[in-house]
Amino acid sequence: MCGATDKTELQGRRAVDLTAADERENIAALIDSVLDGESTMTPGRTRLLRFDNRQVPVEFTVSRIQYSGHPALQAEVRDISADL
């Protein structure tokens, strides 16, 4: 969806870095609230920033989970271009 040709292009990247620049502050706050336990599952919409700098409208759900005994995030992201 973001135009990566290999999974290594995504490794080490923060989810917020894959969103449109003008939405990063809001997405970062949402991620923090889910990680802090203020919300267990948060739906929303944003624009994904592809590696070719095109923006893709997406719908997402972010959930707080436990991974190897540590809090982590699980996100489901869906391209909604066809719906708009």
What does this structure look like?
With 84 residues, the protein is mainly beta. It has a single domain (7-83), classed as PAS domain (Beta-Lactamase, 2-Layer Sandwich), CATH 3.30.450.20. The chain is built from 1 helix and 3 strands, in the order αβββ. It has one helix spanning 24-35; strands spanning 41-49, 55-67, 70-79. A hairpin with a 2-residue loop joins strand 2 and strand 3. The two termini are 17 Å apart.
Q: What secondary-structure arrangement, pairings included, does this model have?
A:
Blueprint: H1 24-35, E1 41-49, E2 55-67, E3 70-79
Major β-sheet, in short?
Answer: 3 strands, antiparallel
Q: Report how far apart the termini are.
A: 17 Å
Q: How many whole angstroms does the radius of gyration measure?
A: 13 Å
> Which descriptor suits the 3D outline?
globular
The succession of helices and strands, N to C, reads HEEE
How many distinct domains? 1
| Proportion of residues in extended strands | 35-45%
CATH topology (fold) name: Beta-Lactamase
Strand order in space, largest sheet: 1-2-3
Chain-averaged pLDDT? 90
CATH architecture: 2-Layer Sandwich
Structural class: mainly beta
> What's the total helix number?
1
Which homologous superfamily in CATH is the superfamily?
PAS domain
Q: Spans of 5+ residues with little confidence (pLDDT < 50)? A: none
CATH class membership:
Alpha Beta
